Amino acid sequence: MSWNGDVVIDLDSHVVERADRFYGDYIDPAYRERYQQLCEAVAQQAKAGHRYSLFGSRTSVIEPIETGRPLGVRDTFGLTRRSGMEGGRLAFPPGRTEALPPIRAEASWDVKVRIEDMDRAQVDVGVLYPTHVSSYCALRDGEFENALYRAYHRWVADFCAQAPTRLTWTIVANMRDVAAGVAEIKHWANDGNLAGIYISPQAPDGKLLDSPHLYPLYEVAQDLDLPVLAHGGTARPPYGPGTFDLDGAWFLLHSFSNPWAGMAALGALIGGGVFDRFRSLRAAIIETGGGWLPLALDRLDTHYIMSPAHVPNLGRLPREVLAEGRYFHAIDTWERSVEFCVEELGEDLWLFATDWPHGDTAWPESVQQITDRPRLTETARRKLLGENALRLCPRLKPIADVHRAPRRPR
């Protein structure tokens, strides 16, 4: 079909949601007044000449934070801001001589545009994540937080239902009010386009993914055969490692905070014994890069041998946990280390992930960036582009079967 008769599944595509524009028909009536207050704050933000931002910048309406300081500049007087990644069309990979085509913002709300642009990129199925929804945990009003999750889930389920053989979605688990998160997952459990459970690489209030308060989320994921998908996010709640250690410098925050968060998430899941406690749980780490994983496993293995008392729930080397086949990892298609990573850790855990339509994507060349790798075998390409995603997310199999071309007998 899209590539050599095999289905291509993008395990990290996005909608860039606007709470003020998307949720009007989906918010619970009891929270409409609070919702209108949020919309008014966004309107005032725009009136002041600022970009839409609920979190992650100095002008955010819910939780402002400095993320725009240029390195080498000590005082900015409010004149700099978080990057809009304006140079992204020339960056993936570095050294390109021609810019990639513009990304159409309409792909976040117009299904026709989205499918056209997926076709252009040779992607059959997209697994959709929101851009900022997991940061609703910054709200002081936990009930309004839950209401916004519900509104987003209703909106995205309707969005995907317009193209049910092309678009699937991830449900955002409330990691602060876990009981509410579990109830919401169960509510949507029978939706045919639900692919997995979105969690952040860390929980609110400084907790990591080994925290026992998250066990009910892992249990419901296991019971419903849904994967847990830990997805990164830069300098927004729940804040990851490094957010407050890099002095508001965007160059460092966006370069390193997601990989750093991914390392902590990997270590907490494995070292905390989560895979041992939940014996059929599948999990993946998304949008943190992939080139760091071989290094991280070397260090985790040595520290398991050196300091076993600090991982009392872990009974074997961390890389042996990965070898069981229940952990998966998204790698950016433009990373120079793709072939090395596959050679070092095998073909069976890597996921094709584009991050489209965000600014740091190689769309529409992402598939080609994988298929043109001379050291990847055809089997490795097939697994990376889709087969591994189907093992991680078995609910995608009926959708994938629609796209898979029949193979001729040899």
Detail the topology: elements first, then pairings.
Blueprint: E1 9-14, H1 19-22, H2 32-47, H3 111-120, E2 125-129, H4 142-161, E3 167-172, H5 178-187, E4 194-199, H6 215-223, E5 228-231, H7 250-271, H8 274-277, E6 283-286, H9 293-306, H10 318-322, E7 327-332, H11 338-345, E8 350-353, H12 366-371, H13 378-392, H14 397-403
Parallel strand pairs: 1-2, 2-3, 3-4, 4-5, 5-6, 6-7, 7-8
Helix pairs in contact: 5-6
What does this structure look like?
This protein has helices at 19-22, 32-47, 111-120, 142-161, 178-187, 215-223, 250-271, 274-277, 293-306, 318-322, 338-345, 366-371, 378-392, 397-403, and strands spanning 9-14, 125-129, 167-172, 194-199, 228-231, 283-286, 327-332, 350-353. It is of the alpha/beta class and 410 residues long. Strands 1-2-3-4-5-6-7-8 form an eight-stranded parallel β-sheet. The chain starts with 8 loop residues before the first strand and ends in a 7-residue tail after the last helix.
Task: Give a concise summary.
By secondary structure, the protein is of the alpha/beta class. The chain has helices spanning 19-22, 32-47, 111-120, 142-161, 178-187, 215-223, 250-271, 274-277, 293-306, 318-322, 338-345, 366-371, 378-392, 397-403, and strands spanning 9-14, 125-129, 167-172, 194-199, 228-231, 283-286, 327-332, 350-353. The protein has a single domain (9-18, 106-403), classed as TIM Barrel (Alpha-Beta Barrel).
Integer count of domains: 1
Structural class: alpha/beta
CATH class: Alpha Beta
Order of helices and strands: EHHHEHEHEHEHHEHHEHEHHH
Please identify which CATH superfamily we are dealing with.
Metal-dependent hydrolases
How are strands sequenced across the largest beta sheet? 1-2-3-4-5-6-7-8
Question: Uncertain spans, ≥5 residues at pLDDT below 50?
Answer: none
Number of helices: 14
